[in-house]
Write a structure and sequence with these properties.
By secondary structure, the protein is an alpha/beta fold. It is built from 9 helices and 7 strands; from the N terminus they run αβαβαααβββαβααβα. The protein has helices spanning 2-17, 37-55, 81-84, 90-95, 105-116, 175-179, 192-205, 212-232, 247-251; strands spanning 25-31, 68-73, 135-141, 146-154, 158-164, 184-189, 239-242. A 5-stranded parallel sheet has the order 2-5-1-6-7, sandwiched between helices. A two-stranded antiparallel ribbon has the order 3-4. A hairpin with a 4-residue loop joins strand 3 and strand 4 (146-154). Helix 1 (2-17) crosses helix 2. One of its GO terms (molecular function) is hydrolase activity. Keywords: Hydrolase. This is P-loop containing nucleoside triphosphate hydrolase protein.
């Protein structure tokens, strides 16, 4: 998997070089539950920034930061538990937390729109500062079991932005508006049997389920149907990537 992520990192750095300096390169990475998205994206991000540091050793005369990449997780746009309690059926909303309608889709769209704005209002001069300041994004606190607003900042020098999550580029409202703004839409795919095996292991190890039978029931009743919904409702990916079942992926599954 390391070679795959390195080769893909080289590809994205090449695309960034072809992107006008006034704009960002925005990459959405989606996949079914247990496809290994988080593990894959962290490896990809690490390789991208290594390549950028190696290939862009000359600092600007003004001492501005070099271009860098940043990873943003869609989990930050979970609706809070307090918001779920206001649903017509709060118990159902809490039970199905993690499905697309328990996310702040409109907030996610607004974030992607902000990323898409030019960094300079006019042609940038050598040494000039960007007109656009940092854009903030929420993150998800597993300790609080709720999102933390404005916990992550995307700075102007973060010109390669990777957004990872189940619903990064859905083809339904309101998500589709953000989906169309992405430069790349990569889908990490995994066979249902393998996804189920990983999900059972995950649910037992994290204490979500008491045993394998309960975990399998949860995977087959909730996670796998959700994965099929995603496959049927994503905007056409620009690239498909097969999830590789190596040791690290099997033990660093995204939650």
């Amino acid at each position: 998997m390391e070679k795959i992520t390195f080769d893909l990192a080289v590809e994205l750095v090449d695309k960034l070089r072809q992107t006008p300096p006034n704009l960002r390169l925005i990459v959405g990475i989606a996949g079914s539950p247990a496809a290994g998205k988080s593990s894959f994206c962290h490896r990809l991000l690490k390789n991208i920034n290594i390549i950028l540091q190696q290939n862009e050793s000359d600092a600007s005369e003004a001492g501005e930061p070099r271009d860098s990449a940043i990873l943003v997780g869609l989990d930050g746009w979970h609706l809070t538990r307090a918001q779920l309690s206001l649903f017509p059926d709060p118990d159902l909303a809490r039970e199905r937390r993690g499905i697309h309608w328990t996310f702040d889709g409109k907030g996610y769209v607004a974030f992607v729109k902000a990323l898409r704005l030019p960094l300079f209002l006019s042609s940038p001069a050598l040494g000039s500062s960007p007109d656009v300041q940092a854009i903030t994004a929420p993150t998800f606190s597993h300790a609080l079991k709720d999102p933390t607003p404005d916990a992550l900042s995307v700075y102007p020098h973060d010109r390669l932005v990777i957004i990872e999550g189940l619903y990064t580029f859905l083809s339904i409202d309101p998500w589709v508006e953000a989906s169309r703004l992405l430069d790349e839409r990569w889908f990490l795919r995994v066979h249902d049997d393998e996804a189920c095996r990983r999900l059972v292991t995950r649910h037992v190890e994290t204490g979500i389920c008491k045993d394998a039978d309960e975990a399998r029931q949860r995977a087959e009743g909730n996670d796998l149907p959700n994965g099929r919904f995603i496959v049927e409702n994503i905007l056409q990916p620009t690239k498909y990537i097969d999830s590789v079942d190596d040791y690290e992926l099997a033990h660093e599954l995204d939650l």
